[in-house]
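TICKET #2291
ISSUE: user wants both folds in one file
ATTACHMENT 1:
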Amino acid sequence: MVALLNNKPSQIVTEIENAFSHIAQVFNPELSEEVKDENVKKAYNHLVRATLDCYKLMCVELKKLIDKIYNSKPDFKPYYEEYLNFINEFRKAREVELENVGVDHLASLENYKKVVEIGKNLFEKVTQLIKNKIEGICGI
């Protein structure tokens, strides 16, 4: 996430800090084992949320990058079907997430991972296409 955005999204940092706060309570000698166990579960949930948010943000940022290239009108046609696949898989991931709200936090994680892979591959192909065009124009 940091490599893609060149910063740390505040929501992700907050989730990680909250997880560490709960983990710290596990070492509090004044708390019962039951309360400590509950803090471990809460820490886990914060880390799950941070992971899911990272993947969702990566999907959004990849879409912005790809759309920016697409809207600049290079010869994007060879990859249009992949672009549509990227958009459709992104929608599907979101639908899975919404269907599982309050049921299974991780249900959509694999879907979002798939979208990130599709997006990264598409972005690499399109940027290579642009690079090849520039090299052709410049005679490099």
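ATTACHMENT 2:
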Amino acid sequence: MPQSSPEFLNFGESAIFFYNCFAFSSPARFDRYLKAANGKHIEAMVLYRWNLRLCEALVPCLHSAELTLRNAIHRAMIEKYLPQTKPHFRGGSHPDDWWFDSTFNGTSVLGYGDSLKLVDAEKRIISDGKPVTTSNMVAELPFGFWVELLNKEYEQSIIVPALQTTMKTLRKTRQDQGWLRDNFGRLRDLRNRASHHRPIFHRTDLTELNQVAWSVSRELQGFFVSPLSPICRFKSVFELDKEAEIASLREQIRTGFYEPHRKATAADQEHPAK
């Protein structure tokens, strides 16, 4: 895309600043931001930096939602299936591993694919040199695992028991399998994108999902909200004055990169290496 502002002579110069100061990436990865900024490289860099801030700012609410969901399901399953379970973990000291031995209508509570995720989690725990305990397993299982347990095949074995116990504090409009699956699925997908710093600056649902994450956390288990919500900076970042950011970044580029780069280039031309 042609350069449309005079700060750099070509894309290569702006790319040097981008790679050195913001991310080790590729022009193809930067292209999304460049297109959104109509080919203006400085504005594209602002978008990239703003996107990083958005990703960072969403961590508290997404973390709270993840912890809340996994604890709600885990505690509900202990209450429903604990009488069936047998001590599974080494030493027999952790009988609340409902996922291995519990059955519903004569078959394992978990489907084959989700059972494999437990095996993978156990391997990772062992690889890290940690004991295989219930708490370590719950912590190791990813957000996606718990969201999968909201799928329709688990409606009677997991969702209904959870809604009757640890999720009964949800407002009535949210005590629905479809609402839980759709909204926690959206939160999971956003978490995956944010954790990998993928572009989210263009999304129009960030404010909504931030509010959903905090409100559902309060309704299910307010414990996580108290320590996490005070450090949430989403509102201030989302309402950032991007024009002021562009002006600030232009000055940073001029004094911190462009002028030193020009001087170094001139010096190299005047005194070329032998």
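RESOLUTION: both attachments delivered.
EXTRA DETAIL ON ATTACHMENT 2: The beta strands are 103-104, 107-108.
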